[in-house]
Structures are given as C-alpha cells and as structure tokens.
Write a structure and sequence with these properties.
This protein is an all-alpha fold. The chain contains 4 helices and no strands. It has a single domain, classed as de novo design (two linked rop proteins). It has helices spanning 6-29, 32-52, 58-85, 94-116.
Length: 117
C-alpha cells in the first residue's frame, strides 16, 4: 500500500518492520510474550493514525494522535528492554528505532499544531 502523507507512510513502514522483526525474534528466541508486544506496539500507531484520518473533530484527531504517541512510547520501552536484556542488539533495531523516532516527532508536532489552530 502506498501512502503520500509522511506520517502515514512512516507509521506503515514502522508496522511492517515491527511485524517482520517480531516474527524473526519469536522464531529465534522463543520469547513470544515480548515478541507479541513488539508486534502490537509497532502496528498500533499506524492503525490509530489511519483512524484519526476520519476523526469527528480536531479534538478527536488530537486524542487519537495522543494514543498513537503513547503506543510509540511503549514501543520505545520494549526496544530498550530488548537491548538492555541482551535479547537483541541495537544494530538489528536501528531501522525500527529510526522510524519510531520519525513517527514520534511528527505526532508531537501534529498535536502541537492541532492545539494551536
């Protein structure tokens, strides 16, 4: 699927990369709980952003972006846990981390814009 909007494109890429990492991680580590959390947290922001596209109001869109931002923060936590525990090395998470940083930054800026307009 192709997205023109930078936020939707990056959140889609984050979801795809998160799913692929999650599948690989679960196969090699047999750690299904954390793998499932990574999958859920990496896909949730994109789903919430897609839902926000048809928001009923600016306040509703801001709220959905806020929930997406919370999911991004949770994903960051799980990535830190993976690295800190030695279950993953930082080099295998670079792409996910970069996408996560981009999605987070766009969400923060978007929420600020929605608050001021």
């Amino acid at each position: 699927m192709r997205y023109e909007d930078p936020l939707r494109k990056r959140s889609y890429d984050l979801a795809v990369n998160g799913i692929l990492f999650s599948i690989d991680f679960k196969q090699r580590s047999r750690e299904f709980d954390i793998g499932n959390q990574i999958c859920r947290c990496s896909t949730a922001p994109g789903a919430l952003i897609a839902e926000a596209t048809d928001s009923e109001s600016r306040a509703d869109m801001k709220h959905k972006f806020g929930i997406a931002l919370k999911e991004c923060r949770e994903l960051r936590y799980w990535l830190d846990i993976l690295i800190g525990s030695g279950l993953a090395v930082e080099s295998e998470l670079v792409n996910i981390e970069n996408l996560l940083d981009e999605v987070t930054a766009i969400l923060v800026a978007s929420r600020k814009t929605l608050s001021t307009s």
